[in-house]
Amino acid sequence: MSSTPLKVAVTGAAGQIGYSLLFRLASGALGDRPIELRLLEIEPALKALEGVVMELDDCAFPGLAGVKIGSDPNEIFDGVNLALLVGARPRGPGMERGDLLSANGAIFTAQGKALNAVAADDVRIGVTGNPANTNALIAMTNAPDIPRERFSALTRLDHNRAISQLAAKTGTPVTEIKKMTIWGNHSATQYPDLFHAEIAGKNAAEVINDQAWVEDYFIPTVAKRGAAIIDARGASSAASAASATCNAARDWLNGTPADDWVSMAVVSDGSYGVPEGLISSFPVTTSNGDWSIVQGLEIDDFSRAKIDASTAELAEERQAVTELGLI
Ligand SMILES: NC(=O)C1=CN([C@@H]2O[C@H](COP(=O)(O)OP(=O)(O)OC[C@H]3O[C@@H](n4cnc5c(N)ncnc54)[C@H](O)[C@@H]3O)[C@@H](O)[C@H]2O)C=CC1
Ligand SMILES: O=C([O-])CC(=O)C(=O)O
């Protein structure tokens, strides 16, 4: 393992997710390698961010090699190996993700360009800020010199939510649930697919053996969990989103176990009929910082319709940001 610190940029670092994410990263969520944090915020939030940095200092984290803050992406992204793009306008009560497209498009255009100009050659970019898939598409398109495979949008929170629901339903530890898949968009159209998942080594759909539960409870509970949390908390999920952001980055950099896979929204190569170029969630394995889409899964008519509906929404979002001139 390299002892040179991994340079990790976090945008929106003074926000809700940032307040959980920074402390997880600094305490070793990505592994034993020390990290240097590069924190990007808008000018008015820098004072609050200074307070968060005081708290990071006060934790005396052994693995935190340095912290730099600022509002200029060209300075903050300089030489970064990992960029976690969290900063965006979050959804409030009654808002759909479409409302966020134009509000957030400009942010991801500028950040894509800055990453293209100054990030390290090995940079990996994870987008958490919503609408995450399309924000990642905007950043990727505005960073033509960075390989497209280096961009990913977060569907790991949905993946974790799906695992948790299956664990609760079957009384099984979460560690026994493997090969969960989220397909499509990080939105209410996403398709949490348990037909290839395993519970203690057995096919999850066969263990559950209750299609009505899958259709009427499992899928909507996972897909609408974000809205349920906003409704209950009056603010969108933050600690769980930070946790999933760490899980996704750790697995991307360090690899997935041989008997499992994870869900990541990555650029489609046309696999499973998902239109080429969309950033859509797939089952993936990772190794040495690279991902590959798990191939050869059988997709029945029920799953096909669900995947198609979510990817159609992604194609509409792509069309909308094309018309806005963002890509
Ligand atoms: N993909 C996922 O699973 C999830 C995504 N989210 C999304 O994550 C995003 C952040 O959520 P919160 O932390 O709760 O929001 P927040 O509003 O608490 O924090 C966002 C921060 O981003 C900053 N920001 C805005 N424009 C920026 C820019 N151009 N550069 C740098 N920073 C900028 C704001 O000043 C603010 O501090 C939202 O878009 C939210 O919808 C939230 C939960 C789950
Ligand atoms: O739903 C939202 O706006 C926040 C989010 O992405 C989630 O919790 O999955």
From TrEMBL:
The active site is at H186 (proton acceptor). Its EC number is 1.1.1.37. One of its GO terms (molecular function) is L-malate dehydrogenase (NAD+) activity. NCBIfam families: MalateDH-SF1 (TIGR01759), PRK05442.1 (NF003916). Residues 155-322 form the Lactate/malate dehydrogenase C-terminal domain. The gene is mdh. NAD(+) binds at G12, A13, A14, G15, Q16, I17, G18, N104, Q111, T128, G129, N130. Keywords: NAD, Oxidoreductase, Tricarboxylic acid cycle. The keyword Oxidoreductase applies. InterPro entries: L-lactate/malate_DH (IPR001557), Lactate/malate_DH_C (IPR022383), Lactate/malate_DH_N (IPR001236), Lactate_DH/Glyco_Ohase_4_C (IPR015955), Malate_DH_AS (IPR001252), Malate_DH_type2 (IPR010945), NAD(P)-bd_dom_sf (IPR036291). Substrate binds at R91, R97, N130, R161. It is an enzyme of class 1 (oxidoreductase). Residues 7-148 form the Lactate/malate dehydrogenase N-terminal domain. It comes from the Bacteria. Belongs to the LDH/MDH superfamily. MDH type 2 family. This is Malate dehydrogenase. Catalyzes the reversible oxidation of malate to oxaloacetate. It comes from Nocardioides cavernaquae. One of its GO terms (biological process) is malate metabolic process. Pfam families: Ldh_1_C (PF02866), Ldh_1_N (PF00056). It catalyses: (S)-malate + NAD(+) = oxaloacetate + NADH + H(+). The lineage of its organism: Bacteria, Bacillati, Actinomycetota, Actinomycetes, Propionibacteriales.
